[in-house]
Design goal:
Layout: H1 2-17, E1 56-58, E2 61-63, E3 73-81, E4 102-104, E5 112-118, E6 124-131, E7 141-144, H2 145-151, E8 159-166, E9 183-190, H3 193-205, E10 211-218, E11 221-231, H4 234-246, E12 253-255
Parallel strand pairs: 3-7, 4-6
Antiparallel strand pairs: 1-2, 3-8, 4-7, 5-6, 5-8, 9-11, 9-12, 10-11
Length: 257
């Protein structure tokens, strides 16, 4: 299993790196109100099962993921990525959403919350780093389109910034509250329908409900997602997370309908 996860991490990283010099990237079509962009709420989160494999190699260069984010601060050039990647799997396995305040970094653990300050205009935002990149040698962070809009670099393309990681005193394994309700708890996403069916049956035998299964596409492949919910109370969601982990499942992922 460990080898499979490592291989999957490398493949996800490579998938994010390959298109960098391919088709043109850009902003979404049509007008968009920046006030609709939601600010992320920094909180301790478990490390992603994907994207934290170290060392890893992309485009002939080797990178080492930092053991933690504490004390990280760096100045350099920020860029952004947009429609070419929208909906595609990030290195953490989550789909890239250009309307969210996220970012890609080569060596910070996934996920990491960081403050990004534009050294030219003084604007500052918080982003959730959930992807790997940029693999351009003179840049230190790749922002989502929404983050670029908030910082005022969506038109110029790049800018000099300061990136400072946000760390937490609490252990990273602390139970994470959902950002909002209602919420779905995703127990797993399986490439084989049979594995999804077996998971649903195990949950049903344990008295877990309501259950939801759906077919979707992730990173260009068909997957079957198994979810519990929707759950309308934060306390109920936290209790269900504890119940699922006590049954031997990995901590579920929050999905917002």
């Amino acid at each position: 299993m460990r080898g499979w996860l490592a291989l999957t991490s490398v493949l996800l990283l490579a998938a994010c790196a390959r298109p960098i010099f391919d088709a043109p990237d850009g902003p979404p079509d049509g007008a968009f109100d920046p006030s609709r962009i939601q600010k992320p709420e920094p909180r301790p989160e478990p490390r992603s099962a994907y994207g934290n494999h170290t060392p890893y190699e992309v485009l002939g260069r080797t990178y080492h993921v930092l053991p933690g984010a504490e004390g990280y601060s760096e100045r350099g050039i920020a860029s952004w990525y947009g429609t070419r990647f929208h909906g595609r799997a990030t290195s953490s396995g989550e789909p890239y959403d250009l309307y969210q305040l996220t970012a890609a970094h080569r060596t910070l653990p996934l996920p990491t919350y960081a403050r990004v300050r534009h050294l030219g205009n003084g604007r500052s935002i918080i982003v959730r780093i959930n992807d790997r990149g940029p693999f351009h040698p003179d840049r230190i962070i790749d922002l989502s389109w929404a983050a670029a809009v908030k910082l005022g670099i969506d038109q110029v393309g790049t800018a000099e910034v300061e990136v400072t990681a946000i760390s937490f005193d609490d252990p990273i394994e602390r139970l994470v509250r959902p950002a909002s309700v209602p919420v779905m708890l995703q127990v797993g996403a399986f490439s084989e329908r049979e594995r999804a069916d077996r998971t649903i049956e195990s949950l049903r035998r344990a008295g877990i409900s309501p259950l939801h299964s759906e077919r979707a596409r992730a990173n260009g492949k068909r997957v079957w997602r198994v979810q519990v919910g929707p759950i309308s109370e934060v306390g109920e969601a936290l209790a269900m997370v504890e119940r699922l982990t006590a049954l031997g499942f990995e901590p579920p992922r929050y999905v917002y309908p």
